[in-house]
Amino acid sequence: MVRIFKHYVPHAVLLLGLLDFVLLVCSAEAAWIIRARQIGMDVDAMSNRAMPLVSFATALQAAMMAVGVYGTGALQSRRHAISRIMAASLLGVIGLALLYFLLSPGWTLWRSNSLYATAIATCALILVRLSLGSVFAGEGFRRRVIVLGAGPRADRLRKLAQRRGSGFVVVSYVAMRDNEKAVKEAVSRDTIPNLADHVVRLAASEVVLALDERRNAIPMADLLRIKTTGVHVNELSSFLERETGRIDLDSVNPSWLIFSDGFSAGRRLSSIGKRAFDVLVSATLLLFTWPLILLAALLVKLESEGPAFYRQQRVGLYGQEFWIIKLRTMKQDAEPDGNAVWAEKDDPRVTRLGYWLRKLRIDELPQCWVVLKGDMSFVGPRPERRQFVEELEKSLRYYAERHMVKPGITGWAQINYPYGASLEDAQHKLEYDLYYAKNYTPFLDILILLQTVRVILWHEGAR
Predict the structure, then answer these.
(1) Helical ranges in 39-179 per DSSP H
(2) Rounded (5°) CA angle 414-415-416
(3) Portion of the chain with pLDDT greater than 90, in percent
């Protein structure tokens, strides 16, 4: 994987993204030439229209990222990839039309050129998936890993490697102690004369330390020799963070959180930029969507008794409470005794109109006012009620640390994990929230905002 602004991107995704960008630029240039010849216009140097070509490629690729063209499903299935490319093309056309009106003419393609370019690009992108899709999803892009350990921790890596779309393959398990038996195919360390030679002979690119008992058991001499051969040495918590995009609570310890890279305090400039973005976008959304909000509020009132808007206290930055506002999607007596209740799948408390408001995320629009006030951000961990927070802090380690960043309307957990209402679900979402808090950059915010479109279009996680 390649680390870009603290976030890991698989080599296959990065190379495919670069190839797609080149194809998009070439498609835009081909469309320009075709249209120019149709109207009898001379074709000048390509450098004279660099900005329109780049703006087209950027808009289309952003749409592709938004609908999940570079996700695991699209990399593993041609049908999935083609359907997402078609959706991205439609979304891209809408985005290009907006750019045409918002930017000066010299910054974008003409509308006719954009349509030609989109058609050409769609065909080219589909052709690449049909011809090279298996290459990018094949073994050639999977890293060869050797695991030191054969206990439950090593078994977790075995299961992770077997998952569809895994970016690595384990070529050997080495049992460092005789009592490690969770992985049956592991070879004993005593049978390997030189562990560094074993690593080189298997052409491994990485060694992961996955010992269940590390006290006085870390093979420092072996790890040093492996490191000097040029092979990367990693420990389990860091490896899982990179491969899963979350902080694994079952393997992490306080010292790892303290001494590992992340939770940087040098975010002043990015925090200012984040706040400026929140103010600008929330004000713009409120300006353009207030008729929709009022219409939805009127329909809520007509459908069921009770207020159209739902106000509730949530726990935000540094554990401080604030008022959140949403369109009401549940019956008025959803919590008759006043006690907080987890939402369920097909929750009977949700009204018929509320079901669609949630699916389309229209009920979230009033939260733009909370973002404008500064109590929330567009991106961050979802805020919970005080009662849930107190319960989860007793059951889950490090739950309070998620309040070290401002809560958001959407977040890393929301785009990576389906909606859940159990303690196990809360732990998984916390692991994603901690990853966001640890590795926050504007780049990660952009990825989350783009992929939120995928969640909305395919109704992932809504409840």
Answers:
(1) 50-67, 72-76, 78-102, 111-136, 152-162
(2) 95
(3) 57
3, 261 contact by CB (below 8 A): no
CB 12 within 8 A of CB 75: yes
* Residues 210, 219: Cα–Cα separation, whole Å: 12
Alpha helices by DSSP H, 209-308: 220-228, 236-244, 254-259, 268-303
Burial class (CB in 10 A: 0-12, 13-18, 19+), 417: middle
pLDDT (tens digit, 9 = 90+) per residue, 121-149?
Answer: 999 999 999 998 888 877 788 899 999 99
- End-to-end, the C-alpha distance of the chain in Å comes to 34
Q: Would you give the DSSP letter of residue 279?
A: H
Query: Cα–Cα distances in Å, from 317 out to 64, 91, 365, 377?
Result: 33, 35, 21, 10
Three-state DSSP class for residue 150: coil
E-strand ranges in 299-346 read: 309-315, 321-327
Interatomic CA distance for residues 407 and 382, integer angstroms? 5
Q: How many CB atoms lie within 10 A of CB 445?
A: 23
* CA 309/CA 410 separation, integer angstroms: 20
Amino acid letter, residue 362: I
Alpha-carbon distance 357 to 329, whole Å?
Answer: 7
Domain parsing of the chain, residue ranges: 2-136, 142-244, 268-457
What pLDDT, in 10s, does the model give residues 186-209? Answer: 999 889 999 999 999 999 999 999
Question: Is the distance from CB of 175 to CB of 189 less than 8 angstroms?
Answer: yes
Q: Assess contact for 360 and 389: CB atoms under 8 A.
A: no
Nearest to 328 by CA among 347, 308, 345: 308
CATH number of 142-244: 3.40.50.1980
User: Which residue from 1, 141, 122, 117 is spatially nearest to 69, judged by alpha carbons?
Assistant: 122
Residue pair 324/316 in contact by the 8 Å Cβ criterion: no
Could you tell me how far CA 31 lies from the centroid of its own chain?
33
- The answer to whether residues 360 and 452 touch, using CB atoms and an 8 Å cutoff, is no
pLDDT of residue 214: 67
pTM: 0.88
Partners of 408 in beta bridges: 377
Token duo for residue 123: 């065909």
**Calpha distance 324→279 (Å, rounded):** 17
